Amino acid sequence: MDGQDAQTATNRRAQTVDGDRYPQTVGFVVAGVGLAATLLEWTPVSAPVTWLTSGWAALALVAFALGRYGVGPAWLDYVAGVGAAGLALTASAAIVGLRGALPYGPPVALLAGIVGIGVAVAAANGQGREALLGREQRSVTAVAVSAVALVFGSLLASVVLGVVPDDPVVAIPVQTAVSSVGYALAGFAFVRSFDGGVDASVPDRRDVVVAAVGVVAIFALHVAMVGVVQAFSLPKTTHGLVETARTHPGILPPLVVLSFLAIAPAEELLARNGVQKYLYGAFSRYGAVVVGCLVFTGVHLLAYAGGATPGAVLVTLARLFVVSLVLGVVYERTDDLFAPVVVHGAYDGVQFALAYLAFS
């Protein structure tokens, strides 16, 4: 047993003495939800996929249950994590294979699997009730703030759109700019509520280097993800703005500029300076990066959902999550908005520019 395993075992014994098995209890409930989800509607998903999903959920359920009652070795928390991961992956595979309406079972199972992974990590790290409740509270707050910011930005844009021409070449850039202002205002208010300061300063040499590395990394990951999608013939969809640009390519040049001046600054203020930094108060810094990127990805659901199959939306969101990890790590490395704004702006701007070349 190495030092980390010994510490895990010590934490487990401490939990036994204190009766604090809150993570295992929560995990048991979450795994139960995942197992119950396999009894919901899954048609037209094949029965073997449903059975496999049930098996992974049952594995997580049993492992969490044994941990809840202090039965078995410390590594049961890792077994529970494997079961939760299997649950998430098989539910994802079921959704990716769908070409029609989304039944109730797979998304519930997927959500249970993702939450179960997080709870298993907390349990394996010896987190108790207070620590896990802190993570739950901050995660829920981060989701709520992001949703409110999305609604506020949309409402603000809808008001302004009432006084601008209906021409998409004018209306879409204006809508994007005003929505971004709304996100920025919401992000600023959130940061002020728990921290008080915006992480923006004159960039130094290190900031520039991190930004440059981040740009290379995010495009490398983008190319790799495109390769994976093509190699496995996975479904995909594109951002609603790009879909609109197929018939109105004139909206794209302004969006290239707005990528740097509005979209990236606003979203990074909210997602990194706001959500990710807020999550530092309950998670490790890299844990906050992952959870923050999950929230960031979820906020983009509506932007990709229009007219696409469930599988295409899930694959595209998974790609977005992977590339957004670069933004989270870049901010974590610098504790400043310069580098993630540059990386984010470059990523969106290049894609808008390439779309313009393709559509015009």
Structural features, described:
The structure is a single chain. The chain is mostly helical. The protein folds into two domains: 125 residues; 225 residues, no CATH class. 79% of the residues lie in helices and 0% in strands.
Q: What is the number of E strands?
A: 0
Oligomer: single chain
Determine the mean pLDDT: 92
Largest sheet: none
Helix % is over 70%
> What is the end-to-end distance?
62 Å
Write down the domain tally: 2
Coarse structural class: mainly alpha
Residue stretches low in confidence (pLDDT < 50, at least 5 long) are 1-6, 8-18
Q: Strand share of the residues?
A: under 5%
Counted by DSSP, the helix tally is 14
Give the overall shape, derived from the CA principal axes: globular
> Rg from C-alpha positions?
22 Å
Structural key phrases:
mainly alpha; 360 residues; single chain; globular; disordered N terminus
